């Protein structure tokens, strides 16, 4: 019996290096004992061997590595041995969906991916303010702390997601196994914690509860599906779940009242907008709020069939607090009119809600948002879509296209045709009006403007 000691429960690199050497040495799966950290060592086991001077070739398909990286995060203590058995046998069996070993490992990988999704969906940060101000600024020294209990070893695997989504926040995520700490520059790890180490409610939760209650639609309630997506084990860490019991209990009465009274459009949604706008006005999800005048939120009918997403507010939008009111807004309005689209009938917003700029003397020159800032603002965009539920969303420019599609694309590759969006709606991509303003050649600018108008017409036709 040979023993392999891994550094941690999610030590994929350590497992991969040891497994490669053992497989090349021809060691059988039944001859290996896999253990983690300080687990007591088998006194009768030998140290793991290194590959021989002339090891046998070992070719591993990419699909096996992808499977191993997910399955190794599972909490099943047999996962290391099962993966090694597949590697040492024939890793190309990974393509055989009917193979019992492959099916078991695929099941583990699915459970891990589900747990990763649950963590991203159900982590709720609570604000904690230290007594001493932030060094060098005099501003409140605020940190956001969350408690989460994962089923599998997915905390480190999820760290990058939270760093990119909450780049400008100082936060900590506490779990029983380990803790993550981000200070806006460095990610560090700490020992595991308990639920008692996490803070209780904070003032922002009242706004969130108001918003959640406002968007709750009793006519769409499916309790079974809700519990499957949001299991009860996560409820105690989520402020909105304190409302669920009452909302579910009164859903039938509220649905009956909605039908009987036939409320005017906007009643319930209007309260949701008020709560969402109030929360967005104090957004600190990225550093752009530090220099911008204000949050510039979307505007338009809450029941609009079409949503139009730009890049970010410009100088005049930042000062006025309304989207598309500057030079690019004038081009946009003119193109919309020529395309036969009434701006008052569409919901207009931006992928990023704060103005990013570089000061040059007395002027503020537009600066393109980076990936972290786009991701930080994605939450607001998603909430807007939940309320408006547009049938078609038009992205103006690459930043907006990245926001609605969830990935970087080339405008020329996707321009002017209907696209499927990740949330099930339809999208349409074209250029941003500011692009037309930057063209030095007047004839070229007129041609591009005409093409822009045709794109808008095509979108309107697709919607019709």
SSE topology sketch:
Layout: E1 2-6, H1 12-24, E2 32-36, E3 46-47, H2 62-71, H3 79-89, H4 100-122, E4 126-129, E5 142-147, H5 155-165, E6 171-174, E7 178-182, E8 187-191, H6 204-215, H7 223-229, H8 241-249, H9 251-261, H10 267-280, E9 306-310, H11 315-320, H12 327-338, E10 347-350, E11 357-360, E12 363-366, H13 371-376, H14 378-388, E13 392-396, H15 398-405, H16 411-414, E14 419-420, E15 426-430, H17 433-438, H18 442-463
Parallel strand pairs: 1-2, 1-3, 5-6, 9-10, 9-13, 13-15
Antiparallel strand pairs: 4-5, 6-7, 7-8, 11-12, 14-15
Helix pairs in contact: 1-3, 2-4, 3-4, 6-10
Tags for this model:
464 residues; 5-stranded mixed β-sheet; globular
Structure write-up:
The chain is α/β, with parallel strands linked by helices and 464 residues long. Helix content is 42%, strand content 14%. It contains 18 helices and 15 strands. The chain has helices spanning 12-24, 62-71, 79-89, 100-122, 155-165, 204-215, 223-229, 241-249, 251-261, 267-280, 315-320, 327-338, 371-376, 378-388, 398-405, 411-414, 433-438, 442-463, and strands at 2-6, 32-36, 46-47, 126-129, 142-147, 171-174, 178-182, 187-191, 306-310, 347-350, 357-360, 363-366, 392-396, 419-420, 426-430. The strands form four sheets. Strands 4-5-6-7-8 form a five-stranded mixed β-sheet, covered by helices on one side. It has a five-stranded mixed β-sheet with strand order 10-9-13-15-14, sandwiched between helices. Helix 3 crosses helix 4. It is globular and about 75 Å long.
Please give a quick description of this structure:
The protein has 18 helices and 15 strands. With 464 residues, it is α/β, with parallel strands linked by helices. A hairpin with a 4-residue loop joins strand 7 and strand 8 (187-191).
């Amino acid at each position: 019996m040979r023993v392999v000691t891994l550094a941690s429960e999610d030590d994929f690199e350590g497992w991969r290096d040891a497994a490669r050497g053992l497989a090349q040495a021809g060691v059988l799966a039944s001859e290996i004992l896999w253990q983690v950290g300080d687990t007591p060592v088998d006194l009768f086991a030998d140290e793991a061997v290194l590959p021989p001077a002339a090891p046998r070739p070992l070719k591993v398909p990419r699909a096996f590595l992808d499977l191993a990286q997910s399955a190794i995060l599972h909490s099943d203590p047999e996962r290391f041995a099962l993966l090694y058995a597949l590697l040492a046998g024939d890793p190309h069996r990974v393509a055989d969906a009917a193979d019992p070993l492959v099916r078991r490992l695929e099941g583990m990988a699915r459970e891990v991916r589900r747990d990763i999704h649950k963590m991203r969906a159900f982590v709720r940060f609570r604000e904690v303010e230290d007594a001493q101000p932030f060094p060098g600024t005099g501003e409140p020294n605020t940190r956001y702390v969350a408690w989460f209990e994962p089923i599998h070893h997915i905390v480190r695997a999820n760290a990058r997601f939270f760093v990119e989504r909450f780049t400008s926040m100082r936060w900590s995520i506490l779990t029983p196994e380990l803790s993550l700490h981000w200070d806006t520059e460095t990610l560090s790890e700490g020992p595991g914690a308990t639920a008692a180490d996490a803070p209780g409610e904070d003032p922002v939760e009242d706004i969130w509860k108001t918003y959640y209650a406002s968007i709750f639609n009793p006519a769409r309630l499916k309790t079974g599906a809700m519990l499957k997506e949001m299991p009860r084990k996560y409820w105690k860490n989520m402020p909105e779940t304190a409302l669920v019991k009452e909302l579910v209990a009164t859903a039938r009465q509220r649905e009956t009242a909605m039908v009987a009274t036939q409320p005017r459009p906007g009643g319930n949604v209007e309260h949701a907008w008020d709560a969402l706008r109030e929360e967005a006005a104090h957004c600190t999800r990225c550093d752009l709020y530090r220099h911008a005048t204000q949050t510039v939120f979307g505007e338009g009918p809450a029941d609009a069939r079409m949503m139009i997403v730009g890049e970010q507010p410009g100088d005049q939008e930042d000062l006025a607090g309304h989207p598309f009111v500057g030079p690019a807004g004038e081009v946009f309005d003119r193109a919309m009119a020529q395309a036969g689209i009434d701006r008052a009938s569409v919901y207009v917003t931006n992928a990023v809600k704060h103005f990013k700029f570089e000061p040059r003397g007395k002027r503020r020159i537009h600066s393109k948002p980076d990936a972290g800032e786009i991701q930080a603002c994605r939450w607001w965009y998603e909430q807007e879509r939940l309320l408006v539920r547009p049938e078609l969303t038009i992205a103006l420019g690459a930043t907006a296209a990245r926001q609605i599609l969830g990935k970087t694309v080339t405008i020329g590759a996707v321009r002017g045709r209907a696209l499927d969006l990740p949330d099930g709606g339809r999208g349409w991509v074209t250029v941003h009006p500011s692009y037309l303003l930057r063209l030095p050649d007047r004839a070229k600018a007129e041609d591009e403007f005409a093409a822009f108008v045709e794109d808008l017409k095509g979108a309107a036709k697709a919607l019709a």
